[in-house]
Amino acid sequence: MSYLDAVKGLKFKVQKVEIEGITFYLRELSGMARIAYEGETDISVKVLKMMYASLCDENGNPTEKPEDFNDFCKYVPNKALNILIEKFSEINASQKQEEELKNS
Predict the structure, then answer these.
(1) 3-state secondary structure of 62
(2) Backbone dihedral angles phi then psi of residue 20, each to the nearest 5 degrees
(3) pTM (whole model) above 0.85
(4) Running DSSP on this structure, what letter comes out for residue 60?
(5) What average pLDDT does range 68-95 have in this prediction?
(6) Please, what is the Cα angle at 86 between 81 and 98, to 5 degrees?
(7) Residues 37-58 as b or e (16 or more Cβ within 10 Å = b)
(8) What are the residues facing 66 on neighbouring strands?
């Protein structure tokens, strides 16, 4: 069996986030999703796009369309975006990054 066959069975971590009565689900990104945003030069926009790409249902299935990104950002208050970004970062941080963040 190849490693590809083995990793196809891995599950993405999913985290439930409730903000002002709305339940969001965020999942960790795949390597391909990370590569898709490598060319983004503005780090704030890059993180927002990556967080948006991680929105999913409770089973980890992506729910959002890339073409709706601007409208999503337009209607979500900054405070809610900050919470989503924080939770997204927690899910996608490596163990080493998590330890460094805890120790800083």
Answers:
(1) strand
(2) 50, 45
(3) no
(4) S
(5) 92
(6) 165
(7) eeeeeeeeeebbbbbbbbbbee
(8) none
**Which structure tokens are listed for 43?**
């780090």
Output DSSP code: residue 55.
E
Residue 40: C-alpha distances to residues 19, 67, 70, 78 (Å): 28, 16, 15, 21
Distance CA(51)–CA(84), nearest Å, equals 7
Q: Between vectors from CA 23 to CA 87 and to CA 25, what angle results, nearest 5°?
A: 50
The first and second tokens of residue 64, run together, are 């959002």
Q: What angle do CA 36, 79, 58 make, to 5 degrees?
A: 55
Backbone angles phi, psi at 15, to 5 degrees: -125, 135
Tokens of 36: 């898709």
Q: What is the pLDDT of residues 40-49, one digit of tens each?
A: 999 999 999 9
